[in-house]
Amino acid sequence: MTIETIILSILALPLLGALINGIFGKNLPKKIVGTIATVVMFASFGLAITAFSSLHEMKIVHLYQFINFESFHLNFSLQVDALSIWMTLIVTGVGSLIHLFSMGYMSHDKGYYKFFTYLNIFIFSMLILILGSNYFMLFFGWEGVGICSYLLIGFHFSDEKKGLLNSVAARKAFIMNRIGDLGLLIGLFLILAQFGTLEYRELAQMILVEGINPTTWMMFGITFCLFIGATGKSAQIPLFTWLPDAMAGPTPVSALIHAATMVTAGIFLVVRSNFLFELAPMTQDIMLYVGLATSLVAAFIAMRQNDIKKVLAYSTVSQLGFIFVSLGMGGYTAAIFHVTTHAFFKALLFLGSGSVIHAMSDEQDIRQMGGLKKYIPITHITFLIGTLAIAGFPFLSGFFSKDEILAHALHHNIIIYISLAFSALLTAIYMFRLYFVVFYGKFRGSDEVKHHLHESPLNMTLPLMVLAVLSVIGGVLNIPSLFGEGISHWMSHFLEHTTLGLSAVDPVHLSNGQTIMLMTSASILTIIALVVSYFIYVKKESVPVSDDKITGWVKLSANKLYLDEIYNFLFVKPIELISTFGHRFFEVAFLNKSIYGFANLVGKSGEIVRKWQSGIVSSYILWMVFGIVGLVLYIIIKK
Amino acid sequence: MSIEILVYILGGLTVGSALMVVLSKHPIRSVMYLILTFFLISANYIMLNAQFVAIVNMMVYAGAIMVLFLFVLMLLNLSKENEPKSSLLVKIASALAGGSLLLVLVAAIKDTVVLQVAEKVTDNASGLVQNLGHLLFTKYVLPFEVSSILFIAAIVGAVLLAKRESQIIE
Amino acid sequence: MILATVFESGVSIQFYLIFATVLFVIGALGVMTRRNSIILLMCIELMLNAANLLLVAFSSYFGKADGQIFVFFIMVVAAAEATVGLSILVMAYRNARTVDVGIFNKLKG
Hints:
heterotrimer; B: 170 residues; mainly alpha; Four Helix Bundle (Hemerythrin (Met), subunit A); 0% strand; globular; C: mainly alpha; Helix Hairpins; 3 helices; elongated
C-alpha cells in the first residue's frame, strides 16, 4: 500500500463510520453502532502505525485543486511528515481508547448513535486539521472541530435539569472559539498578502531557504493573529473560560476533545508555523507571558474547586499554559512531547473521573465522595498513576516532559524557571488534594449512592489500564541526554528530521550536572506536595467545606476569580445594551415604520383608487368621453 | 339658393328634435321626438340622393325599432313621477364632457383638408336600388351573409332572455 | 327621382361633418345624463344614426354607393342590438322592478 492510500484510508475510515452511524444508526442495535465506530478508530490507528513505520521523508498527497487563479492557488492536499504522523497517532490512538470507553459509559443514553456519529466526525475534522498541507486545510479542520465541540458539549440539551445549562455552555464555547477564529482568519489573510501562498512547504522554502524577511511589524501581525487563534482553541487568557463550562458535556467528550486533541490544535498551529514565529520574537515573548499567567491563574483556581471535572478542566488550562511557555521559548519539540504525555495522563484522569461518576450514579461533587478506593479498585489504581504522572513524580512520563520545559526555562531566564516550578508545585498540590479527597477517608455521600457503588465494566476499565501503562512508560520517548546519547531525545530527533523548520531551531543542551539538579529539585517539590497533601487530607481528615463557609483567598479560588462575572460586565452587558438599543431605535421605530409604512401606503392608495369604481355605467361613459377628448386633443396638438 | 336654405332648416330641426329627445322628462315624449328625428334624418337622406336608404331607415328604425321601444315602454307603464332623475353634479359633468367633446371634434374637423372631387366622378344615380343591389351582392356579399348569422344570434338571444322561467309545480 | 346633389348647390361637406358631430354629441350627452335605461338605449340609436348620416353624406359627395352599403350593415347591427338590449332590460325590470340604471351598481369597488 502506498502512503497515499494509507493516509486517505486513515481519513476515510472515520468519515465512513460517521456516515453509517449517522444514516442507519437509529435502526441498528447499540452494540453494532458502538462497534462500528470503535473498530474504525482502531483501524485508523493501525494504518497510522504503518505510515509511521514507513516514514522516510515528507510527502505531499494532492487531492483536488479548489481554486486556481494565476496568482493564487488553494489545494485540498495532505502533508505526511513526522509532526502530522505523530499527532495522528495520538489522535487515533487515544481516540480509539476513548471510543471503547464510551461504549460502556454511554450505554444507557438514548442518543447513542448520534454520539458516536459526532465523535467520528470530530476525529475526521481533527485529522484534516493535522494532515493538511496548507493553512486552508488547517482552517477547514479547525472549524470542523469547533462545530463538533459545540454539538458534543450540548449533547444533552434536552435534559430536564441541566439542558439549558448544557446549551449555554456549548454556545459559550463556540462563541469564544469564534473570536479566536477571527484572529486566525486575519492571520491567514496576512500570510496570503505577504507571501502569496498558504502551503507550508512553499512558506518554509521562502523563509528558510530564500531568506525572505518581511518587516518586523508584518511578522508580528501575522504571528500575533495566529496566536489569537491558538488562544481561542487552546484556552489561554483571556479566552479560556469556555473550557471549564464545557465540562457540561459527557465525560468521554471532555477526555477526547478538551484534554487530548482539540485543545492541542492551537499548539499544533504554532509548531507548524515555527519558521514564522522564529521571525517574530515579540510574539514569542507575548506567548510566553500569556502562557505563564494562564498557567498560574488556572492552577490557583483549581486549588479550591469541588467538582471533579472542573478541577481537571482547570488543570488542562494550566498545562496548556505550560506548553505555551515552552513554545514562547522556541522549545517546539518539548511542547509536542508534553502534548503527548498530557494526552496520556489527562485522558486517563478524565476517563477515570468518568468511571468515578458512573460509580457514584452521576454525582460529581467531591464533597459527596470519599473512601472510594475500596469500592472501585481498578479505577483507583489508574487514577493514582495519572495523578502521579501529572504531578511529575520521578521517572513517570509527566516528569520527563515537564523537565524538558523546565530545562528550556532555565536556559532562557531564571525568573521564568522559578515561576514555572511554582506552577508545577501548585499542580501537584491540587491534584493530590483531588486524589485524597475522592479516594481516602470516609464515604460522605448518601446511603442510596453507597449501595450502587460498583466497578465499571471491562470496556471502561481496559482503556484506563492501557493509558495508565502509557503514562508510566511514555517518558522514554524523549529522555534527556543524561541517560545515554543513543536513546535520548528520540522524539526530538524524529520530529526534527522531517518536519519543516524544526531543524533550524537551536536546541537547548544542558550539561549533565544541570540536568541532575533540575530533576532533583523537581522531584523534591513533588514529594513535598505529596507529603503535605497526605497530611492535610488524610491524617487531619480535612474535608472541603460547603460553599457558604469559605472566606479569603479560598473564596476567590472557588469562585474562579470572578472572571465570568467580569467578562459578563465588560463584554456581554454592553453588547446586549447596544443590541437592545439598536432594536428599539432602528428596527422598531425606523425600519418597521418605513417598510410596513410603505406596504400600508400601497394598501391605502389601492383603497382610494378602488372607490372610482362606482358601478354606474353612465359615469364610466363620462370618463370615457373625457378620455376621448384628451386623446383627440393630444393628436391635434401633435400635428 | 333654396336648396341650401332647405338643407339648413332641415338640419336645425333635426338638432332641435334630438335635443328634445334627451331633455324631455316624459319617456313617451322622448320616444315621439325620436321618431320625429328619424323622419327628419330620412328627409336628409333624400336630399343627399340616397332614396333607398331613406325608405329603409323609415321602415327599420321608425317602423320596427321604435315600435319595439314603445311596446316595452307601455309594458313597463312608466309615468312621469317614477322617472329617475340624475343629480345636478352628473348633469354639469356630462354637459362639460359633451361640450368639450364637441369643441375638440369641431376643432379637429376644421383643420382637415377635404379631397376635391372632380365633376365627372359624381353619379347622381348612385343612390338607386339597382346600384345598391348590384354592389351588395357582388362586393359585399360576405358581410351580407354574416349579418344573417348575427340576426339568428340576436333572435335566439332575445327569445331566451325574455322567456319567463318555468314555474315549479308543487 | 333623381335630384341634383346638394353639394352642387353650394352646401359644403363641412356642414354635414359638424351636423353629424352635433347629433353624436347630443346622443352622448343623453347617455351620460339619463338614468332611465330605455331612454339610454334610444340615445345610443341616435348616436348610430349620426354616424349613418355622415356616411351617407360622404357617399353622396364622392358619388360612390359604398357608404350606403355600410349604412345597411350599421342598421342591421343596430336592430339586433336594440332587440337584445330591450330583452335584457325587460328581464332586469322583472328582477329589480325599476328601470333605473343606478340600481345596478353591485360591481362597485
